[in-house]
Amino acid sequence: MGKGHTRRPMHKVHVIQPLIPRYRLPLFRQLGAAEDWRFTVSASRRLPWVTNLASEELPESWADLEHPARRVPGTPFVWQGGMALPPGFGPGDVLVLFSEVRYLSNYPLLMAARRRGSGIVAWGHGFGKRGGLADRLRIALVRRCDAVLLYSKAEIEAYAAMGFDQGCLFATQNAIDQRPIRDARAKWDAPRLEAFRERQGLAGRTLLLYCGR
Fold first, then answer.
1. In 10 A of CB 67, how many CB atoms?
2. What's the rounded mean pLDDT across residues 45-56?
3. pTM of the model
4. What pLDDT sits at residue 140?
C-alpha cells in the first residue's frame, strides 16, 4: 500500500437463520469466500420441534451455531439464544434477517441495527400459508428493512402493489447447485454408459427414466 493511502474498512454482512441446512451451503460458501466483506451466518444447530432438518456441522469460520432455539411455552414463538450484532457493527454493515415473525430474537437485532445506522435486509417468503394476522405482522416487519429478498416475481409484484419501492425488491428463486451434477455427468461418457447397459441387460432396450422430487 502506497504512502498516504489508508486501508478501506472491511464491511460486515451478518446473516441470521433458523438453521444452516446442506442445501444452503453453496450460497453461503461463495459469500464466505468473498474478500469484500466479513461474512457471518448465525443459526441454531437444531430446532427441537423439527425432526427432518438440522444445521450442518461446519469447519468454516463464518458459521456460528451457538444459538440454541427454544419455544416460548404455550405459544408459537421462538427465541434463539445469544443472538447479537458483531462487535463494531455500524454504518456500511448489513444485517440479513429471515422474515419469520415467530422468532422474537430477531426484533432486538433489527432495532439495534437501526440504531447503529446499518443496512437491514429481510429475506424470506412474502406470505405465509395461513395469511391473515401473520402476514400483516410479516409485512410490518419487512417495512422496517431497507431491502427485501423474496422468492418469486409474483411476490415482488404483490409487495410493489402494497407501496414497497420496487427498486428494493429482489427475487431469490430457489435453485440447486448444479456443479456436483455436472461433475457426475462428465464421468459417464458413451463407452461407460454402453458398458453399464450391457451389465444390466439393458442393451437395445428403450429406457424410461423418472425422477421424483
1. 20
2. 93
3. 0.83
4. 94
